[in-house]
């Protein structure tokens, strides 16, 4: 009986210690996640030019509750404060995008058509404008904002530093965040160059919780763009369309109901 009583007392003490430690651990994880995210934001913001390539996956849920994934690859070159060129190609879209600080141009290479709209301002202002559509998605664009930390943390209910992971051979800090409608995870390269390497967004308000994933494959800074890198020249014979006419240029086939999105 004495041994049983002693074991019970020890177990009770250990459980009490564990429960008391949970808030401290949670607070530590939250602080670590915020610190790492802020370091990534500051690093990305400090780069005047960035050239990157990426792969992205988007999931849809069929009426039969089958989860289907569609994949794309792309590349982007941006020069702060107001120049960008991007290209995204998948099975259902081949889209190029140009921005010179005044005008944004979108090209549908599949159908040899293009559209333009006025967008005077910075890259941050452009990214906000593109949320409305205009025929091109910029996966993970929030990661490239000048002050991405504030935007990314907006609406965050919980933050965790999960630990370490490896993306394309690079050791990364694995972070997890919870919002009201979404959960999202971010892998940030460990070390002096905290590059965002992978982003996964899970839609919690859609049945079967579809996900959007983007993995940054290559990342270069201090690139010197060609003098005409952001100049748009319409393709030969291309038809000019109203900006809203290219709203369908998605990563999905026509008629598919999108599940996860960034």
Which key features would you list for this structure?
12 strands; disordered C terminus; alpha+beta; twelve-stranded mixed sheet; 262 residues
CATH-level-4 superfamily name = Lipoprotein localisation LolA/LolB/LppX
The averaged pLDDT comes out at 85
Give me the number of helical elements.
3
Query: Structural class of the helices, strands and pairings?
Result: alpha+beta
Classify the beta-strand content into a percent band. Answer: 35-45%
Q: In the residues, how many domains can be counted?
A: 1
How far from one another are the termini? 60 Å
> Uncertain segments of ≥5 residues (pLDDT<50)?
13-19, 258-262
* Helix proportion range: 10-25%
User: What topology, given as strand order, has the largest sheet?
Assistant: 7-8-9-10-11-1-2-3-4-5-6-12
Number of E-type strands: 12
Characterization of this structure:
The protein has 262 residues and is of the alpha+beta class. The protein has a single domain, classed as Lipoprotein localisation LolA/LolB/LppX (outer membrane lipoprotein receptor (LolB), chain A), CATH 2.50.20. The chain is 22% helix and 38% strand. It is built from 3 helices and 12 strands, in the order αββββββααββββββ. The chain has helices at 2-45, 123-130, 148-153; strands at residues 49-61, 67-79, 83-90, 94-99, 103-108, 113-118, 158-167, 170-178, 182-189, 196-203, 211-221, 239-240. The chain has a 12-stranded mixed beta sheet with strand order 7-8-9-10-11-1-2-3-4-5-6-12. A hairpin with a 7-residue loop joins β10 and β11 (211-221). The longest helix is centred in the N-terminal third of the chain and has 44 residues, at 2-45. It is globular and about 60 Å long. 31% of the residues are buried. Mean pLDDT is 85; it is low at 13-19 and 258-262.
